[in-house]
Design brief:
Blueprint (H helix, E strand, L loop, with lengths): L3 E5 L5 H8 L4 E5 L5 H7 L5 E4 L7 H6 L5 E4 L9 H6 L3 E3 L6 H16 L2 H9 L3 H7 L9 E5 L3 H12 L3 E5 L5 H7 L2 E3 L2 H5 L4 E4 L13 H4 L6 E5 L8 H9 L3 E6 L20 E3 L8 H21 L13 H24 L6 E8 L7 H13 L12 H8 L2 E7 L7 E9 L2 E10 L2 E7 L2 E5 L4 E8 L4 H11 L4 E9 L4 E8 L5 H8 L4 E8 L1
Parallel strand pairs: 1-2, 1-3, 3-4, 4-5, 6-7, 6-9, 7-8, 9-10, 10-11, 11-12, 13-14
Antiparallel strand pairs: 13-15, 15-16, 16-17, 17-18, 19-21, 19-22, 20-21
Amino acid sequence: MPKQRILISDPISEKGVELLSSHPELDVDVNTGLSPEELIKIIPSYHGLIIRSQTKVTAEVLDAATELKAVGRAGVGVDNVDRDSATNKGVIVMNTPTGNTISTAELAFTLMLSTARNIGPAHAEVLSGNFPAARKAYKGIELNNKRLAVIGMGRIGAEFTKRAQAFGMHVVGYDPFLTQARADQLKIELASSPNEALTGADVVTLHVPLTDDTKHIINAERLTLMNKGALVINCARGGLIDEDALKAAIDSGHIAGCGLDVYQNEPPASDHVLFSLPKHISFTPHLGASTNEAQENVGIQVAEQLRDFLTTGEIRNAINMPSLDASALKEIGGYLDLANSLGRFLAKLGPTNPDAIRVSYHGDITEKDTSLISRTVLTGYLEAARPDGQVNIVNSTAVAHDMGLEVAESIINASTEYSELIIAELSKGNKKFRVAGTIIGQSPRIVGIDHLYVDTNIKGHFLIVRNDDRPGIVGLVGSALGEAGLNIANLSLARNKSKGDALNVIELDTAPSNEIIAQLSASPGVLSVTAVKI
């Protein structure tokens, strides 16, 4: 049997290379620093590819990779992989979501300490011979008894929290997928919004992915919510902070300073707006995963994952493929796209910080093994908050457990108007929110939102508009969308006569802008507008 060939195009730990090279069924080449043209030229002969952040796995690379079965990313982020093209080509994309958790948490904590005590500027003054002046100039900030806002309570946020509590800090966390039970376990105050978490905070640290929802999550308005003299720490993604707004807040004296490992544009220009600040500053060049231990961990982890997939077929930490054998996939594969969309609609429309998620089945589907379908609903729900590859079909139940989210499945014998129906439901206290779907012919459809009957596709750009049930609202919304150049591909209307409101599910050809969403939200009779992209 011919050997499976693996190309390692970015540096990983020697132990990871040795692990692969020692396997009798694998043939390993280490060839780093390839240009895109060089990679495209040699990739056709390889079955596996291991990368870090330097190699760009584009659609062109994947088109040329006729034998490629898997891409392994030594690290978390997969921004440098064209995931849609990989999926279309049948290429598994794996990452290593846990390998650099401690290293990133420790760097963020180091930046907080360094920023609070002016370590960077004071160090420069000592080297410049200004020892006496520096002693007088650089008065620090104590962290004990300070209020810390942690935005994003995943693995890294939780590790940062442990260290902060050891320093006597009071921690308030915001994460829309963290339950109250998990917050109690972590001994933190749970905020229901970023604004609530930031109000009265002395320090904020960011641990969320960069998405449309989180871009500039720290902006001018939110900076004013923090206490005078507060600090801003970011080791996650540069675009999370409006850097110009942060500079203005520091110049005004409201914010004392910042510690940054990431920047909106990398590498940042030498005249970056924040680099001229005199005090309470710490800057590092994207070093979150740059420890010997983290580099070794992710190198070994990605090597093990690719080895096991190419030699046994086992899939771990895949971000675009469920873990199941071919026969099971053939039987339930048609339901998986529907299940994923149900979870994503729940994440956008349901309550934040829920206690539980339940998937219920009616009709013919109850005779099938529905466990993977339920897990796919859960994965879609969690992926909406962590679209950087940290959640997948393999680890979604573990992530839900870590978040304190109860996951349940039920079979219901009551009849419905459909031959089979899947209902995904979030619950928070006495509140429940549900989305329902079915397959009509060969077409998966969303057929219910919050107990109202709708009929729409499962993928696309959607606007979910709740409004008073009175004449003229549909025309008002349609006119506004038309004036904005947005074409309506599908429209489904539902009325709740008992409450006197209505629901419009509008599928658009292109994504709506923030401006049109704000315009519609402010229109008379419109109760809420939510954009959903699936």
